[in-house]
Specification:
Shape: globular
Number of helices: 4
Mean pLDDT: 94
Structural class: alpha+beta
Radius of gyration: 14 Å
Strand content: 25-35%
CATH topology of the domain at 32-114: NE0471 N-terminal domain-like
Strand order of the largest sheet: 1-2-3
Order of helices and strands: EEEHHEEEHH
Distance between the termini: 39 Å
Helix content: 25-40%
Oligomer: single chain
GO molecular function: metal ion binding
Organism: Marinicauda salina
Domain Gamma-butyrobetaine hydroxylase-like N-terminal: 14-94
CATH architecture of the domain at 32-114: 2-Layer Sandwich
InterPro entries: GBBH-like_N, GBBH-like_N_sf
CATH class of the domain at 32-114: Alpha Beta
Protein name: Gamma-butyrobetaine hydroxylase-like N-terminal domain-containing protein
């Protein structure tokens, strides 16, 4: 794992509804809880193939209620809607942080295409 950015701080900011994650290379990201939920790495959301990805709706106000370490490589998040099957690797959290704006825009576009809203 040498050379790979390693998280040095995770802060779940309930008021901002975001996870702040800082890495040892100085990168810092604020990832909205909504994005964490709708992009959960769980099979329930992602399916077992790219064409099986589920469009998750109504998560604008979702909150993270628990974070449990999974080995040294990830964290399992529990949300207030009961979802708790996503295991977020440090690499995946980095990817979400780096691409949060684009992913949120894509999510909004998919919702609009389906005639649905974020709330």
């Amino acid at each position: 794992m040498a050379g790979r950015p390693w998280p040095v701080r995770l802060a779940f900011r309930d008021g901002a509804r975001a996870l702040t994650i800082e890495f040892d290379d100085g990168a810092r990201f604020d990832i909205p809880f909504e994005l964490l939920r709708v992009e959960s790495p769980s099979a329930e959301v992602q399916g077992h193939a790219p064409d099986q990805k589920r469009l998750v709706t109504g998560k604008r106000d979702v909150r993270v209620t628990e974070a449990e370490p999974v080995g040294r490589y990830a964290v399992r998040l529990t949300f207030d809607d009961g979802h708790a099957s996503g295991i977020y690797s440090w690499d995946y959290l980095r990817e979400l942080g780096e691409n949060a704006d684009g992913l949120m825009a894509d999510y909004a576009a998919r919702l609009a295409e389906a005639g649905m809203a974020r709330s």
